[in-house]
Design a protein that fits this description.
Blueprint (H helix, E strand, L loop, with lengths): L1 H21 L3 H6 L21 E2 L6 E2 L6 E5 L2 E6 L2 E5 L7 E3 L6 H4 L24 H12 L32 H7 L12 H11 L23
Antiparallel strand pairs: 1-2, 2-3, 3-4, 4-5, 5-6
Length: 229
Amino acid sequence: MKNLLAIATRGALAVGLLLCAAAPSPARAAVSVSIGAPSIDIGIHFGALPALTVVPGTPVYYAPSVDANFFFYDGMYWVYQGDHWYASSWYNGPWALVDPEIVPVFILQVPVRYYRRPPEFFHGWARNAAPHWDEHWGHDWAGHHVAWSHVDKSHVPRPAPIPAYQRKYKGNTYPQVEQQRALHTVKNYKYEPREPVVRDHYAQHARPEPPHPQAGGPHGGGPPGEHGR
């Protein structure tokens, strides 16, 4: 009886270890995090698209004339406010809350001096260096982002073009979410994001879905990608 009980106990322990091994680690789970649907008003209400200037040596823009930590990178606007990062494909939002796990590295590397409203915990940090996000977000975050502060100047991408078409939408003409999606097309803004998390957001929330060819119509029946070459 004791032998049977010992065998059963070892078997249960082995199954438990296998389940633990199969369970996703925090680092793996973070990969599935994405920018949510834009729905938050964070009080950014510019009268027009503010002037943006490239942070030297980076693909990120900042807005030197506004009283906000307002950036533009890879086809999206990014705001750091109230110890949270937010993102939107339009300059006045609405905004989506961005998990610290997926804030792009180039945004995190922007030096302290380009934050127009730096939080108090930035005090004492070098103005020409990035904020100490590893200290602020803790050991777990730092373990998942070991090389976040490393800048490889030979592989810095070119800054994305600013969506200049948005300048004509302001005040009462500023579009609602569905109108924004209809306007943010390849016709108005040809740029294709490079960051996977931004590409995912574009596909889900920023651009309209491409029309599906109707079977039996003049363009139906062929393999995908055959027409329009």
